[in-house]
TrEMBL record:
Organism, as annotated: Maribellus comscasis
Span of the signal peptide: none
PANTHER family the UniProt entry points to: SENSOR HISTIDINE KINASE YPDA
Protein name: Signal transduction histidine kinase internal region domain-containing protein
A GO CC term assigned to this protein in UniProt: membrane
Assigned keywords, A-Z: Coiled coil, Membrane, Transmembrane, Transmembrane helix
Amino acid sequence: MSFTTVNQLFPFRKLLNFLLGISVGVQLVIILYNHYSGYAIIEGATHFLIRLSFGSLLSLVGGFMLAYPNLFLIHFLNKKLSWHKKIFLRITVQFLFAFLLAVFISIFVTLISNAVSPFTNDDLNSILFYNALITVGVNILMMISLEAWLYFNESNRSKIKAENLERELSQIKFEVLKSQINPHFMFNSLNVLSGLIDKDVKKAQRFIDEFSMIYRYVLETIEKPVVSLNEELKFIRSYISLQQMRYDNSLYLDVDLPGEFLKTYLPPLSLQVTIENAIKHNIVNTSNPLKIELCVKDKWLVVRNNLQPKISSGGSTGLGQKNMIKRYAMISEQTPKFMVKTNFYEVELPLIKPEEI
C-alpha cells in the first residue's frame, strides 16, 4: 500500500486539520493541568503561547507518526481481517498495535523535547510515563476516529456509486426498450405484415404471433438483471423468424450450443442487440445471405457473422456495445469482446454461472 492510497483514503489536508485540532486540544489540557496543579506555572501570555506552539508542533509531528501507521494498518486489516469476519481478533490486533505504537512515539517525542529543553532525571522518568499514558489514550481515540471517518466516507461513496449505477441502469433500460420499439423496426414489420395478409394468411398469423412474443419478452425481462441462455435462445428464434420473413430467407442462424450451457445466464436482450447490429450493418439479400453462428468457446458465448458491410451504412455509434459493457459491469467482472476478423465479425459474451449471481 502506497502513500497515494493513504491520501485517497484520508486526504492530507483533512488529515492535517484533524491532527492539528487534536494536537492543540491535547496541549491545552496538559498546559492547563500542569499550571493549576503547580507542576509548571504559566508566567504570562507570551510564555503560554510559546509552550502551546512548541507543544502543538511536537504533538503534530507525533500525530502524523501515529496516523499514517494507523491508516496503513486499517487498510491492511480491511483486506485481511474485516469487521464482518473476526471482530474480536481485529479489535485485539488494533488495540495492541495502537498501544505499542503510542509508547514508541511518545518516548521518541519526549526525548526530542528533552534534548531541546532538558529535564531532571526524576522529571524525565515521570514525564516519559505520563506522556506514554496520554499518547496511548490519544492514539486509541485516533484509531477509533479514523475508523469512523473511513467508514463514513466508504458508506458515502457506496451510496453515491449505487445512485449512479441506478441512474445508469435506468438509462440502459430506456435505451434497450427504445431500440426494441424504434419506429423503423415497427414500420418495416408492419409493412411485411401488410404484404403477408394478402399473400399468405397463415404466414401472417405466425408473423403476428412472433411479433407479439418479442414485445412480451421485452416487457417481461427489461427489469431483470439476467436471464437464462435458454430463455434468450427461445426469444432470439422468434426474432430471427420475424427477420427471415422480411428478408425472404436470406438470413440464417446456426446454433451449436452444448446443453450444459443453457442454464448459464447473461443480461436480457444481449443476443438480440448483437444480432440486430449484424443485420443493421451488413448486406442481407439472396446474393449475399447473412449467416449468424452461435457457439461456445472457452465458456464464452460466441456470436459470429460473415462480414459484408453496407457501403451506404453510416459509421457505428458504438452505443449498443457501450450499453452492453455497462450492463455486464453491474453483474460480472468480465467484459464482452468485440472483434473484426478477416472475413467475419465476432462478439464474445461472458456466460455467468448460477452460483455467481
